[in-house]
Amino acid sequence: MRALQVRELLPDHAGTGLADLPVPLAGPGEVRVRVRAAGVNFPDLLMTRGAYQLKPALPFVPGLEFAGEVDAVGEGVKSWSVGDAVVGGNRFGAMAEYTVVPAASLRPRPAALGWDAAAAYPVAYLTAYVALVRGARIEPGDWVLVHGAAGGVGLATVDLAKALGARVIAAASRADKRAAVERLYAPDAVIDGAPGFRETVKALTGGQGADVIVDPVGGDIFDESTRCIAFGGRLLVVGFASGRIPELPANMPLIKGFSVVGVRAGEYGRRFPERGAENVAAIDALAAAGTIRPHVHATLDLADWREGFAMLERREAVGTVVLRP
């Protein structure tokens, strides 16, 4: 089978390339899926150079999420049949023509979504759900500031926050991205996410600041976010796309009465399996009803994986990039 394989952990994905690998076999309790589409996420890029917290043994196939059809079932699997349309996620392995995963990790593909959109929503929307519902305990009417609003997680957060009844301020650094976010999801406000945004946020919120701030950027964006968060607000740390991990003096949340909450959706589900299952069921139901609308920035052949990775690195993707093995 054709697959993308990481053979060495090197900068610029130099140790990664296409490979012809044996088709894997489904063991007891496992399912083999013919992958029709695989989403590209920032952790995939980081793993090719060993810069992510998860470091699979070499060599490995990257890819956190996929959509496809059940191709074979292992011994003891009763929940799936060959030909079933499914979506799923694993910590790696999706960027190949076939992937083998535990049967319990699969879900039916929402009928409202095609292959590409189905591969684009599991990771981003689960992260958004854990951030907004579990981390922030969002309420209808809350002001939610979303940084990096055009990225995969950011765009999903804008969409989901709107669906949950929040008032959304989408922040993005480029005019074309801001226009795209406004066209796709019509948030309550779309602003320049470059440093200097705090006065705009205060003006939009009547001086109180944002009740919830979702930050996948870190660095200077995090620092300034502490200046425009409401008393009792929740500042959600999703990642550090800027490259700098910020530090926070403890007197800031003390004086301003806000909390800082780390968001790791996968780890949340592993530590709290019942709540994790509820999270997945919730986003699946929203997708099936058409309440959330995942956006695919580009669909590329697996052979063009380097261009897909570059779209994320250049910060030009609006939504998710999808590879077709």
TrEMBL record:
<dbReference type="InterPro" id="IPR013154">
    <property type="entry name" value="ADH-like_N"/>
</dbReference>
<feature type="domain" description="Enoyl reductase (ER)">
    <location>
        <begin position="15"/>
        <end position="323"/>
    </location>
</feature>
<dbReference type="Pfam" id="PF08240">
    <property type="entry name" value="ADH_N"/>
</dbReference>
<protein>
    <submittedName>
        <fullName>Alcohol dehydrogenase, zinc-binding</fullName>
    </submittedName>
</protein>
<dbReference type="InterPro" id="IPR051397">
    <property type="entry name" value="Zn-ADH-like_protein"/>
</dbReference>
<dbReference type="InterPro" id="IPR036291">
    <property type="entry name" value="NAD(P)-bd_dom_sf"/>
</dbReference>
<dbReference type="InterPro" id="IPR011032">
    <property type="entry name" value="GroES-like_sf"/>
</dbReference>
<dbReference type="InterPro" id="IPR013149">
    <property type="entry name" value="ADH-like_C"/>
</dbReference>
<dbReference type="GO" id="GO:0016491">
    <property type="term" value="F:oxidoreductase activity"/>
</dbReference>
<dbReference type="Pfam" id="PF00107">
    <property type="entry name" value="ADH_zinc_N"/>
</dbReference>
<dbReference type="InterPro" id="IPR020843">
    <property type="entry name" value="ER"/>
</dbReference>
